[in-house]
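Figure 2 data, in text form.
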Amino acid sequence: MDAAQGFGKRIPELQNRRIDLISISGHKIYAPKGIGALITRRRGYERPPLTPLFFGGGQERGLRPGTLPVALIVALGKAGELALHESEKRNIRCAEIKKRALAAFAKIGDVPTGDQTKVVPSTLNISIPGLDSEAVMLALKEVVAISNGSACTSQNYTASHVLTAMGLNEDQVKGALRFSWCHVTPEVDWDSVIDAIRTMGGWEPCLI
């Protein structure tokens, strides 16, 4: 399971004993960049049948050769400990930011993508009717730093296969934007974000 976004945030779900493998990324919980981990669960005396990608040493029972970065490993452990102990407080703060974001975007009819009962409080993916996400990113570059819901190569853009698999139509995928924050993010001027979007031609307000 790829738990880069959920590790340290969705504690009960990731403690499920049916999970055998979890990959995590340290910088997502404020450890230094460059450290991560693959957490494996032993079934009785049996370990998961992993095959090494690199060869040359006996470290980690032959799974990963090379000198381990002890300082980064210690930092990851401490970051994980803090994330566990502070998870409730961090989630409350992130949920407050999301609540204000959703209220602001509701003014122009933007609809969050995905089941909002199954999301983390620190991210938000919305689709803006009638607007291309690349254009919105340019319009907001002096206000907030955001990403869009598409993966791009050097000269062409392809729709996000994840959003497509979720059942979004082409227009929704084209207008998808991704916002993320954390518990130490300063207050966001969401009104300025909305005002910048309103200055763009082509957006279509939804009357609900």
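Caption note: Residues 88-198 form a domain with the Aspartate Aminotransferase, domain 1 fold (CATH 3.90.1150.10).
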